[in-house]
Structures are given as structure tokens and as C-alpha cells.
């Protein structure tokens, strides 16, 4: 009965209802788009960074992370790969042998990070071959050739087809020394990597270190939206936990996690301001409504309508309007986000350059996690309901005679 | 009759006094002389040795074979003969310089003094221990602390403190040198905080190349339980003439 009354009431003045609903609608839409955009940018950034570095998850020999020495490597194991790939969220596996050594060319020498990689597997994940600026990418795991970060090459003053000498510590205290032809130079966004990395085919790296078939880590790539922590535990369960350790990128690169956290605090403030503005817009329309209907409400009370019931009707009206706004907002939000996930925004010009300098794709993706839609809608709904108590409160305090005479 | 008695008495006295005199004279040996004698004992004028080195770790172990040449304090050379992957690697000490030849990259590397205290080929020995850049005689001040028994042998206990000018990382080294054969049987290495870092034991005294030497030397890093490195002398020849020209960076590359 009350609901029906409220429903009829809101359509009595269509324009007012539509204005209020529209402000809710834009509130929901903006909140959704904003969250979806920032989350999308973070997801993309994480994806880009981890695909070059650690992977979302990494499997090591137990104890490797605390003592990152080549003696803490493990034997490459097909069974392990099969077990990992069985998980539907796992998209790619990248076996790696990661060591540190001295790299030397002519009379320059520098400490470098040697990444023994499977060129084909790496290429499939991070398109390493597209980052080559000079020369060619390595093709097979056996090739006697390396690809260097551009920054490193310029520090060593070396060019494609020169011979790079690597000298380091091998497996079980053997010495690791070898020379390689420089096949290509690569430009990586992360300056740290660009100035230090030497990519070398994994079999060559294993031979050089006297560590046949041994790996320091298997990097696991996942679907962008996977829940990291829960997957970590399910993977940990599926493989031998006494032999291997599973670590997430958050554990391995806490500085990036902290950066994102600090950066999103800024976004929370912005979105807080957004909610604030939205609330005032809503409040304004409600205030106007009360003012317009003062006469009517006064008469209703004068002819015997209980104030309490009247307040409830007004509350219901507000909730109904908010619901209409929210639902249309969600639908529009889904459509917008859907559109942009299919057609992501390709940045152009200077901005594109900036992104590429940081090694991040110059494309803005939108995150389409359900979480965003639900949370943003609930927040706006809660806000509008909270505000809707105001007309109710006003009615309770209404003096019929003054109201009728106003 | 009297004559013979006197003779007997004199001989008796001489026999009685002789060991005292030698003992006395040995006691009079300065700590530096003792160390020098021990050093000369293991080194000779020149030496050529065939060595096996075992690296022992809690979970694995590894063995390398090498040949070593030395001439006095100034020259020494070590050639790795196995395992195959490292075969042909040479370390050369020439007066105050240390060089390393790595055949797989065809490079001669000069080791800076700063690298002298780093692990030598993954063993518990430092580069300095192996190539003996620092001389245990010249680069230290020695004090005799007394006598102790090590491996059932009477030993001099000597404290060696590096001279400020020497490139040595230890705050002090304490060595035990056998009073009879002048062989160093034990050494302890202390860092700048006075903490014991490494202890080195020598044993298996054998007659080799016409001298008595300790043919087994073990190094134990104190803070790493289960780790040690053993050097075994399989063969050693002393005092064969070696030309100074042998110890050159050019010769390193053709050494077999």
C-alpha cells in the first residue's frame, strides 16, 4: 500500500523524479568508470612489470629466496609443469636460470643480471622480440648468442655482433666463464633492467654455470584478474611443499605493491570527493522536493495522515528513485566498460611516449571485475538512502498550519 | 787413569750440556725465525707440486686437481688440470701482482688486492692463501706466546699481527709450529673484531721430495658448520731450477 503510494507519488512530478534519478545515475556511472579505469591501469601495469620480471607467481627451490645462490636451484621437471598447467588460471610458465656475473667488453666491465630464458616461452608472454631495437632476438634455447639491455650495451660501449665475456660463479663452486655473440639489443621500460640485464638462452646458461637442467625459478603467468593469494595456496597444495616455495609478486617486489597502495590512496581521496559532490547534488534535489511539496504535505497531515507513515512514504520514494538511478547507472556502466574492454583506448602522442619509456603498453584497459560494479553501486545507494532520511525528518517536524499557509 | 776419568767427565758434561745448548739456542730463536723456518720448509727455493683440492659442503662435495710451481716468495703459479670445464685455468703471482688466465674466455685478469680476501675458486681458501701474495714472514710482526701440544707434538704458539702496510684482512693470525720439524700444524685466523673466522689444520706428515712436509691441509670456516676445504699434496719436488721467465703472463697461456 505504502509502496504503491510512493510509486505513484514519484511519477506525479516526472521531471523532478528524472532529475533526481539522473543525478544518482551519473554518480553510479562516474564511480564505476573511475574505479574500473584505475584498477584497469594498475592491472595492466602489474601485468607488464611482472611479465618481464618475476611473473605473478614464482616457484623456487625451498629456501632460494633467502639465499639466492645458484646452489639453491632445482632440476627441471616436466611433472611440475603439468601440475601447474592443470590449474585453469595459469596461462604461461617461464623456466629461468637467474644469476649475477661480471660482463666485460674491451676494457669495460660491469656487474650484470643474467637471465637464462627459454626464448620462445618468454616471447609468448612479454613480446620480448618486439622490444629489440637493434639486431635480432634469440630464437632457440641452444643458440650461442645473447641479447642485452640497451643501457648496458651503451655502458659497455658495445654493439651488435661484438663478443661479450661473462664471468661468474657456477653451480657447486665451479667457475662460470663464457663468451657470447651479441645478437640484439633490447629496450626495456624498467631502467634497472635496461641497464643490467643480459638475456641468454637457458641451455647455454646452464652449460656455462655447470648446472645442467637446473633452474632458479619457474615464473607463472596468470589471467589478469585472478585472486593471487588463493591461487598461491592452491598451487602450493598441488606441488610438493617440502621441495618448492611459491611466492607472489607482492612478496618478491614489495616496493611495487606499496607504490600501488600509496597511489590508490590518492584515488580514494578523489573518489571520496566525487561521492561528496554527488551527495550534495542529491541533497539539493531532495531539499527542493520538500520545499515544493510543503503545502501538499501540510494538507495531508491536516486531514489526518500520520506523520510517521508520511515519512516512510517519502523515504520509500527516495529509495525508489535511487534504485532507478542505480540500475540505469549499472547498465550504462557495464556498457561503457564493455565497450572499452573490447576497444581499449590507445594513447597517442606524448603520453604514449611516456608510457613506453616506462615499458608499459600505451593502452588504457578497463577492469571489468564484478566487484567494482557491486561495491560502487552499494556505496551510492547507501549514500542516497542516508540522505533520504532528511525529508522524513522534515515531515516529522512539519507544522501543518504553517505548511498550508506557506 | 785420571786422564780417562777427566775425559769421561768432559764427555759426560758435553753430552749432558749439548741438548741443553741446542734447546737453549732453539729457545732463543725469535718468533720470526721460527715462522721463517716453517715457511722455508714448505716452500724451499723452488717447488713443483701435484695437488688435489676437495671442497666439502653439507650437501655436496667437489674435487679439483692442479699443479703448482713456486720460486721463493716472489713467484708462484697454479694450473687447474681437472675438472674438464675448468682445465687450463691458471693463477700467477709475480712479485706483488696476481693474474688469472681463463681459457674459455681467453682473458687474463689481474686480481686487485681487494679481491685477495675473496674465496678462491669457491673454496674456503682466499685468493691470498693460495697464491701467497702476503708473506707470513715479511708482512707480519711475530710474538712467541708459548708452547702447546698439537697432534701430540710440542709446538710453538706464535701470534702474527699484520703490519699496517700489508694488504691483509686479518686482525691477527695464531700459528702452531712444531718444535722439532718446524712444520706449521695449526693456524687460526681472527677478524677485526677479534672473532675466530677460520681455522686451518695441517696433518699427515710425510717425507716428500726429500723433506718432511704436512701433506694434508684442512680449512674450516668457523661460522659455516659442515663446510671445509682439504688440500692434499700428491707429490712435491723441491729445489729444481725454474727460470724466472716461467712465471710470466705469456707462459700462463701455454702451460700444460
Structural descriptors:
heterodimer, A: 406 residues, alpha+beta, two-stranded antiparallel ribbon, 14 strands, elongated, B: 256 residues, 13-stranded antiparallel beta sheet, 13 strands, 20% helix
Residues in β-strands, percent of chain B = over 45%
Helical percent range of chain B? Answer: 10-25%
Assembly of the depicted chains: heterodimer
Q: What ranges of chain A have pLDDT less than 50 throughout 5 or more consecutive residues?
A: none
Order of helices and strands of chain B: HHEEEEEEHEEEEEEEH
Give the mean pLDDT of chain A: 87
- For the residues shown, what is the average pLDDT of chain B? 85
Q: Given the C-alpha coordinates, what overall shape of chain A results?
A: elongated
The total beta strand count of chain B reads 13
Biggest sheet: strand arrangement of chain B: 6-5-4-3-2-1-13-12-11-10-9-8-7
- Please describe the biggest sheet of chain B, giving its number of strands, its sense, and whether it closes into a barrel: 13 strands, antiparallel
Termini separation of chain B (Å)?
72 Å
Structural class of chain B: alpha+beta
How does this model look, in words?
- The complex is a heterodimer of chains A (406) and B (256).
- Chain A is an alpha+beta fold and 406 residues long.
- Chain A has helices at 2-10, 14-52, 78-85, 119-126, 150-156, 191-194, 202-208, 228-238, 249-252, 254-292, 294-302, 307-342, 349-357, 370-397, 400-405, and strands spanning 57-61, 74-75, 90-105, 108-117, 132-135, 145-149, 163-169, 175-186, 197-201, 214-215, 217-222, 244-248, 345-346, 363-364.
- In chain A, a hairpin with a 2-residue loop joins strand 3 (90-105) and strand 4 (108-117).
- Chain A is elongated and about 100 Å long.
- The model of chain A has no long low-confidence stretch (mean pLDDT 87).
- With 256 residues, chain B is of the alpha+beta class.
- In chain B, a hairpin with a 5-residue loop joins strand 10 (184-190) and strand 11.
- The longest helix of chain B is centred in the first third of the chain and has 27 residues, at 2-28.
- Chain B is globular and about 85 Å long.
- Chain B starts with a helix and ends with a helix.
- Chains A and B meet through strand 7 and strand 8 of A and loops of B.
Amino acid at each position: 500500500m505504502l509502496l504503491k503510494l510512493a510509486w505513484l507519488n514519484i511519477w506525479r512530478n516526472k521531471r523532478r523524479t528524472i532529475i533526481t534519478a539522473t543525478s544518482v545515475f551519473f554518480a553510479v556511472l562516474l564511480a564505476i568508470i573511475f574505479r574500473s579505469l584505475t584498477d584497469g591501469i594498475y592491472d595492466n601495469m602489474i601485468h607488464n612489470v611482472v611479465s618481464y620480471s618475476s611473473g605473478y607467481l614464482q616457484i623456487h627451490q625451498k629456501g632460494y629466496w633467502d639465499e639466492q645462490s645458484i646452489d639453491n636451484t632445482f632440476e627441471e621437471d616436466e611433472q611440475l609443469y603439468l601440475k601447474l598447467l592443470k590449474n585453469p588460471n595459469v596461462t604461461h610458465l617461464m623456466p629461468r636460470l637467474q644469476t649475477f656475473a661480471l660482463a666485460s667488453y674491451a676494457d669495460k666491465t660491469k656487474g650484470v643480471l643474467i637471465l637464462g630464458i627459454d626464448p620462445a616461452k618468454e616471447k609468448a608472454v612479454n613480446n620480448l622480440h618486439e622490444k629489440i631495437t637493434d639486431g635480432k632476438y634469440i630464437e632457440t634455447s641452444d643458440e650461442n648468442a645473447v641479447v642485452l639491455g640497451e643501457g648496458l650495451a651503451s655502458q659497455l660501449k658495445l654493439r651488435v655482433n661484438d663478443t661479450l665475456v661473462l664471468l661468474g660463479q657456477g653451480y657447486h663452486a665451479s667457475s662460470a666463464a663464457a663468451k657470447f655473440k651479441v645478437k640484439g639489443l633490447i629496450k626495456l621500460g624498467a631502467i634497472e633492467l635496461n641497464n643490467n640485464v643480459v638475456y641468454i638462452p637457458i641451455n647455454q646458461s646452464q652449460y656455462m654455470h655447470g648446472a645442467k637442467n637446473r633452474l632458479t625459478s619457474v615464473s607463472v603467468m596468470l589471467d589478469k584478474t585472478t585472486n593471487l593469494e588463493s591461487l598461491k595456496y592452491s598451487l602450493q597444495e598441488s606441488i610438493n611443499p617440502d621441495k618448492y616455495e611459491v611466492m607472489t609478486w607482492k612478496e618478491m617486489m614489495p616496493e611495487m605493491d606499496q607504490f600501488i597502495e600509496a597511489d590508490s590512496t590518492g584515488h580514494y581521496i578523489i573518489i571520496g570527493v566525487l561521492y561528496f559532490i554527488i551527495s550534495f547534488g542529491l541533497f539539493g534535489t531532495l531539499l527542493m522536493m520538500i520545499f515544493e511539496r510543503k503545502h501538499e504535505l501540510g494538507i495531508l497531515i491536516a486531514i489526518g495522515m500520520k506523520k510517521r507513515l508520511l515519512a516512510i512514504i517519502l523515504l520509500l520514494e527516495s529509495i525508489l528513485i535511487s534504485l532507478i538511478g542505480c540500475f540505469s547507472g549499472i547498465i550504462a556502466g557495464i556498457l561503457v566498460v564493455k565497450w572499452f574492454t573490447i576497444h581499449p583506448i590507445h594513447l597517442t602522442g606524448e603520453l604514449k611516449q611516456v608510457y613506453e619509456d616506462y615499458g608499459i603498453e600505451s593502452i588504457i584497459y578497463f577492469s571489468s571485475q564484478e566487484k567494482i560494479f557491486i561495491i560502487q553501486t552499494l556505496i551510492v545507494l547507501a549514500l542516497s538512502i542516508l540522505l533520504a532520511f532528511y525529508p522524513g525528518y522534515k515531515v516529522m517536524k512539519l507544522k501543518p498550519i504553517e505548511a498550508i499557509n506557506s | 787413569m785420571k786422564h780417562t776419568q777427566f775425559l769421561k767427565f768432559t764427555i759426560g758434561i758435553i753430552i749432558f750440556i749439548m741438548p741443553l745448548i741446542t734447546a737453549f739456542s732453539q729457545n732463543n730463536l725469535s718468533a720470526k725465525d721460527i715462522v721463517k723456518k716453517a715457511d722455508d720448509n714448505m716452500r724451499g727455493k723452488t717447488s713443483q707440486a701435484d695437488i688435489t683440492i676437495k671442497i666439502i659442503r653439507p650437501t655436496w662435495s667437489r674435487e679439483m686437481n692442479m699443479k703448482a710451481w713456486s720460486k721463493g716468495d716472489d713467484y708462484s703459479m697454479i694450473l687447474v688440470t681437472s675438472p674438464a670445464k675448468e682445465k687450463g685455468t691458471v693463477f700467477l703471482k709475480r712479485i706483488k701482482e696476481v693474474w688469472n688466465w681463463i681459457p674459455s674466455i681467453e682473458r687474463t685478469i689481474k686480481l686487485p688486492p681487494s679481491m685477495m680476501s675473496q674465496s678462491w675458486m669457491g673454496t674456503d681458501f682466499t685468493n691470498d692463501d693460495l697464491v701467497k701474495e702476503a708473506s707470513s714472514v715479511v708482512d707480519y710482526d711475530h710474538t712467541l706466546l708459548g708452547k702447546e701440544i698439537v697432534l701430540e707434538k710440542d709446538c710453538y704458539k706464535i701470534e702474527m699481527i699484520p703490519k699496517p702496510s700489508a694488504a691483509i684482512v686479518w686482525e691477527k693470525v695464531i700459528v702452531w709450529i712444531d718444535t722439532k720439524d718446524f712444520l706449521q700444524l695449526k693456524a687460526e685466523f681472527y677478524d677485526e673484531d677479534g672473532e675466530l673466522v677460520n681455522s686451518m689444520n695441517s696433518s699427515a706428515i710425510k717425507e716428500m721430495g726429500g723433506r718432511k712436509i704436512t701433506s694434508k691441509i684442512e680449512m674450516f670456516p668457523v661460522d659455516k658448520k659442515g663446510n671445509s676445504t682439504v688440500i692434499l699434496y700428491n707429490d712435491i719436488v723441491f729445489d729444481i731450477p725454474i727460470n724466472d721467465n716461467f712465471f710470466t703472463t705469456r707462459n700462463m697461456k701455454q702451460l700444460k
